[in-house]
Amino acid sequence: MLSLRCPYCGVEAEETELAPGGEAHLVRQGPGSSDEDFETYLFLRENPKGVHFERWRHAHGCGKWFHAARCTVTLEVFGTYSAQVSAPPEDILAAIDARRPGWRREGPR
After folding, report:
1. Residues 6 or more apart from 47 whose CB is under 8 A from it?
2. Is 35 contained in some domain?
3. Domain total of the chain
4. What values do phi and psi take at 75, rounded to 5?
5. Rounded distance, CA 59 to CA 52, Å?
6. How do 51-57 and 19-23 pair as beta strands?
7. N or C: which end of the chain has fewer CB within 10 A?
8. Strand partners of residue 69
9. Looking at residue 79, which CATH number applies to its domain?
10. How large is the average pLDDT for residues 65-94?
């Protein structure tokens, strides 16, 4: 079972206490964007085999949204962090680099 630590209240929550929110760090498209850019934002998501950055909500706890970095193959969690950041923190990236040498992150879309 997947278990994530909420960075706000510090509770180690099982996935039944959490609500998934999809891919993290999406570049949102507004009214002035092209149809292609809006379509990409609205419908196209990463679904990698390996390291992935996701949004989660501590639904049966403090209720706050946060981000998690985890491996989609092994469910290994590299860390969780505030949802108010536009990119993963350096300590999370360093944890991934230490456990997955050579991994490559695609930039935000």
Report:
1. none
2. yes
3. 1
4. 65, 15
5. 21
6. antiparallel
7. N
8. 53, 79
9. 3.30.2270.10
10. 95
Across the chain, how many H-helices and E-strands are there? 2, 6
| Greatest Cα-to-Cα distance within the chain, rounded to the nearest angstrom | 42
The CA–CA distances, whole Å, from 76 to 13, 31, 64, 85, 109 equal 14, 38, 22, 22, 24
Entry pTM: 0.87
| Contact of 92 with 78, CB cutoff 8 Å | yes
Domain membership flag for residue 108 = no
Q: How far, in Å, CA of 53 to CA of 35, rounded?
A: 26
Nearest 5°: phi and psi at 42?
Answer: -75, -40
pLDDT tens digits, residue range 45-63? 888 889 999 999 999 999 9
